[in-house]
Amino acid sequence: MDLQTIRVLFIGHNPDNAALIRLLLSSNGGTHFQVHYARDAQGAARAMQSHLAEVVLLDLEPPDHEALSTLAATIEFAGDAPIVAIIGPGITPAALQSIHAAVGDYFATPRLNRADLIASISQQAHRGRRKEKRSNADHGRTIRVLIVEDNPGDAALIRRALRSVKSREFQVSHVSRLSAALEGIHRYHDVVLLDLNLPDSQDMETLHRLRAREPHLPIIVVTGIEDRRKAVEALANGAQDYLVKGHADGHLLERAILRCVGFR
Amino acid sequence: MNTQNSALIDVLLVDDSPGDVRLTQEALKGSRFRIRLEVARNGEEALAVLRHEGRYANAARMNLVLLDLNMPGMDGREMLAVMKQDDALKSIPVVVLSTSDSESDIQRTYELHANAYVTKPAHVSQFNSAIRAIEDFWIGFAKLPAGSFGPKVLTD
User: pTM of the prediction?
Assistant: First the structure.
């Protein structure tokens, strides 16, 4: 039988726990676990983009307000990847209930043991793969979309619009800096929705830098309502299409994306 | 709830990003304060609101301004500079809310007399917490200048 690899992303503010998880998941007969570590939600979003973890392992200890907001952020960027949570003993029933509803499985630290953890992660990974296979068979290939957008609200609107498309599956990642997008983008996405004005790059330079790195990647520029002139300029500079912020519903987005992906 | 909490607070949001405007509106909807939000898409529009010009003749006097930096037309820096040189407007607290976390933006903004600089968090849930923290401090905790509350509250 082949040696199976499962990509796991561990999120937790205590690096010692990351070391412990690596140890627990190391050299296990049938399955190889590739563990990436991120300290917080922001680092995790970036790691997720280049690593495309199949299972997210989330350390919620202590189970305070910050942990719950990390959970909320994780649900957002994890996309279809199932989440396995590790929770501490001090958790309130209400917090447990909201965690329970959001994750595929969870462990309380005192009973965290190697066999159970491996079984749970493997099961979640298989569940994720089955789901992906099914949706691929039903709707054609899942389209992997990268949103490069510094305004959290605009990114959320695009996500919402993509979620509303029922006929097709989009796997969405989001980064808020061009530098993050340039790190490992080309291998993992079919199309990029690019805001031109980012904190680390403005205007056409943003498009030029991404285009220089990735000559064949479909890029859809997302502009503000008063920047239609910019949109036309972007098309002349190698963007495949443009969308105007706040005016892109699911249908419009889907059409633009499908057209672009066909360019390849 | 005490009576101070129930005073109507007028907040001007200056932001060209439709998504972030919506996110802010949603975050403020669940507020424990009575907040009336006016939205301007750039600096010119914001100054017109603050000065009750044109179609904003009946706009309220603002108690707090939430200001984005990067906008087409008059951007947040220019608008802040104009506002802080205007005797009628300079006492209104301005909280800059930008996605930039660059040192130079922060430095420049305080040199222009912004009252606070907040980096917009990249994720929705953290964005909501940031808005909540701003309300809690600027509306719930800080004492704002009497003038900025308009004639109704002047007699305090």
Answer: 0.64
